[in-house]
């Protein structure tokens, strides 16, 4: 049995290496995700690689960023600055690092506003293995990442799928997405009972993680946060950290984010925006009215940062 396992291992190694070496079309990786996050991947690729409009201020985060940051509105408020909402559904710091690297292939932002929330995600982003290069997918940062083997498999399987499509299929040309802005408005209102229930849940007594547990569970995320901060420093990009909480979990003290203090300045939205129940689409996302208020506040904050630089 051991001999069979070794033979299988030796058989698979060259196949994995060949799959890893063979290049695939960069845009095809993003287009292949058109069933995910409202086909946002294709737009993000085209915003970086085919749209010549600069990105002076870029927001990176989850769907909270997508629905909460009206980049077109902020863009109109800030003179001579181009603002881009580069949020992508769900959480995972390895994807945020990847998206920043992709952006820097073609753009040179002045400011990066990175979403932070109640706690860091303990694993990587589920889309990371689909968009990453083979080197970082097959040889990732393995520690504290429970999905490392799953990610390697997903990357290889997706790459084989893309190679098969390139060889055997009549490829349909996906139209270029030319929009400068990534905000996705949601005009509805949350159910008040759901909001109140979530607030009670957030304010209920919860056992806080010990320092050891905090360091262990969030080590993977902070590894990539450090890489993001280092990349920003290298490229002379100012890093701002924007807290976008769920309803009822409002933080008002920078001490709540002590672990982030070495990465950049922390922005905490006003409670009059976060506490207003008519500003929410559901317990996790601001609606169009809430996004308008948050974006107007951010316009003032960002203007002050630009003036002081």
Task: Give an overview of the whole structure.
The model is unreliable at 6-12 (pLDDT under 50). This protein is an alpha/beta fold and 309 residues long. Helix 5 crosses helix 14 (288-308) and helix 6 (93-103) packs parallel to helix 12. It has one domain (23-308): 3-Layer(aba) Sandwich (Rossmann fold), CATH 3.40.50. It has helices at residues 2-21, 26-31, 40-49, 63-68, 71-77, 93-103, 128-131, 134-138, 148-168, 192-203, 211-217, 219-234, 271-274, 288-308; strands spanning 57-60, 83-85, 111-116, 238-243, 265-267. The protein contains 14 helices and five strands.
Annotation keywords:
Rossmann fold, 49% helix, 309 residues, alpha/beta, 14 helices, five-stranded parallel beta sheet, single chain
Strand order of the largest sheet: 2-1-3-4-5
Helix content: 40-55%
Strand count, sense and barrel status of the largest sheet are:
5 strands, parallel
Question: What low-confidence regions span 5 or more consecutive residues with pLDDT below 50?
Answer: 6-12
CATH architecture level-2 label = 3-Layer(aba) Sandwich
| CATH superfamily annotation | SGNH hydrolase
CATH fold field value: Rossmann fold
Please report the number of helical segments.
14
Radius of gyration: 21 Å
Query: How many β-strand stretches?
Result: 5
CATH top level? Answer: Alpha Beta
């Amino acid at each position: 049995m051991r001999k069979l396992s070794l033979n299988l291992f030796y058989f698979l190694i060259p196949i994995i290496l060949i799959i890893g070496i063979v290049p695939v079309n960069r845009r095809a990786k993003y287009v292949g995700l058109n069933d995910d996050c409202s086909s946002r991947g294709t737009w993000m690729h085209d915003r970086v690689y085919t749209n010549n409009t600069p990105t002076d201020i870029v927001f990176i985060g989850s769907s909270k960023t997508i629905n909460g940051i009206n980049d077109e509105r902020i863009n109109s408020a800030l003179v001579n600055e181009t603002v881009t909402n580069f949020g992508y559904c769900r959480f995972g710091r390895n994807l945020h690092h990847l998206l920043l690297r992709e952006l820097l292939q073609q753009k040179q932002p002045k400011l990066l506003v990175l979403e932070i929330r109640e706690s860091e995600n303990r694993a990587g982003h589920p889309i990371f293995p689909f968009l990453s290069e083979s080197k970082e997918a097959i040889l990732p940062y393995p520690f504290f990442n429970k999905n490392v083997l799953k990610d390697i498999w997903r990357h290889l399987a997706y790459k084989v799928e893309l190679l098969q499509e390139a060889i055997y299929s009549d490829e349909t040309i996906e139209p270029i997405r030319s929009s400068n802005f990534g905000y996705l408005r949601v005009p509805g209102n949350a159910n008040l009972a759901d909001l109140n229930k979530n607030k009670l849940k957030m304010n209920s007594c919860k056992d806080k993680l010990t320092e050891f547990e905090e360091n262990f569970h969030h080590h993977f995320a902070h590894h990539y946060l450090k890489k993001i901060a280092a990349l920003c420093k290298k490229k002379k990009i100012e890093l701002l950290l924007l807290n976008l909480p769920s309803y009822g979990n409002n933080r008002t003290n920078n001490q709540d984010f002590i672990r982030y203090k070495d990465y950049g300045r922390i922005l905490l939205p006003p409670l009059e925006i976060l506490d207003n129940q008519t500003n929410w689409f559901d317990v996790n996302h601001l609606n169009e009215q809430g996004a308008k208020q948050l974006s107007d506040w951010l316009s003032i904050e960002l203007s002050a940062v630009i003036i002081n630089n």
